[in-house]
């Protein structure tokens, strides 16, 4: 008489379902985040070798004069900051966000900044004369600053957060898939551990 062993209900079903879900998530999350991963990989390389793109950097100097009544006031609280900023933007097509507006006894210092761009303006409070120095880092400078989230605003900061979450999920679902591949499970875990150890050793040996 043949004895049939009872299978525990549910175990196989949940294992197959989890395996299928991990494959599905890994595939589509990888496709969704492909462009993001590609962008951060490329800009990681360009950030590490900024000297390759030094010829893209340039600067521009401009002189001008604005209404002295906007800046020549003993009460610094009555300095017309908004009018000064709007005038400079309209006249010189200055881009970037206002990052600083400093007032001292003799001059006002206004700074604008954005990815790969900066503009520093020094205004003589007595005469209204000003000097502008604009700096451009070129296309590579722009994408490098986007990689770092520098002067790129709250929206781009949110995109970086979402990108980081996607990368974590892609990595996590990849590890989940590995645990369902019995023939490759131990070798995969071993390679992952070796990778971690090598990364730590490189850090300890070569990073001052």
In short:
The protein is an alpha+beta fold and 208 residues long. The protein has six helices and five strands, in the order H-H-E-H-E-E-E-E-H-H-H.
What does the model show?
The protein is an alpha+beta fold and 208 residues long. It is built from six helices and five strands, in the order H-H-E-H-E-E-E-E-H-H-H. Strands 1-5-4-3-2 form a five-stranded antiparallel beta sheet. The protein is elongated and about 80 Å long. Mean pLDDT is 84; it is low at 1-10.
Number of helices: 6
| H-E order | HHEHEEEEHHH
Tally of domains: 2
Kindly report how far apart the N and C termini lie: 73 Å
Low-pLDDT windows of residues: 1-10
Radius of gyration, in Å, reads: 28 Å
User: How would you sum up the global shape?
Assistant: elongated
How helix-rich are the residues, as a percent range?
40-55%
Structural class: alpha+beta
Strand order of the largest sheet: 1-5-4-3-2
């Amino acid at each position: 008489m043949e004895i049939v062993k009872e299978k525990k209900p549910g175990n196989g079903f949940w294992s197959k379902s989890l395996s299928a879900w991990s494959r599905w998530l890994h595939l589509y999350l990888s496709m969704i985040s492909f462009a993001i991963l590609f962008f951060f990989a490329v800009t990681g390389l360009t950030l590490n070798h900024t000297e390759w793109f030094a010829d893209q950097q340039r600067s521009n100097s401009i002189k001008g004069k604005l209404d002295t009544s906007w800046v020549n006031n003993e009460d610094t609280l009555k300095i017309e900051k908004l009018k000064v900023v709007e005038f400079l933007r309209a006249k010189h097509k200055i881009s970037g966000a206002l990052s600083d507006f400093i007032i001292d006894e003799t001059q006002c210092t206004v700074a604008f900044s954005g990815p790969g761009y900066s503009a520093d303006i020094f205004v003589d409070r007595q005469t209204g004369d000003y000097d502008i120095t604009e700096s451009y880092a070129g296309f590579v400078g722009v994408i490098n600053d986007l990689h770092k989230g520098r002067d790129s605003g709250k929206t781009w900061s949110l995109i970086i957060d979402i990108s980081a979450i996607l990368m974590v999920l892609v990595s996590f679902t990849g590890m989940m898939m590995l645990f369902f591949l019995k023939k490759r499970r131990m070798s995969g875990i071993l390679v992952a551990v070796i990778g971690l150890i090598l990364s730590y050793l490189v850090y300890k040996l070569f990073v001052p």
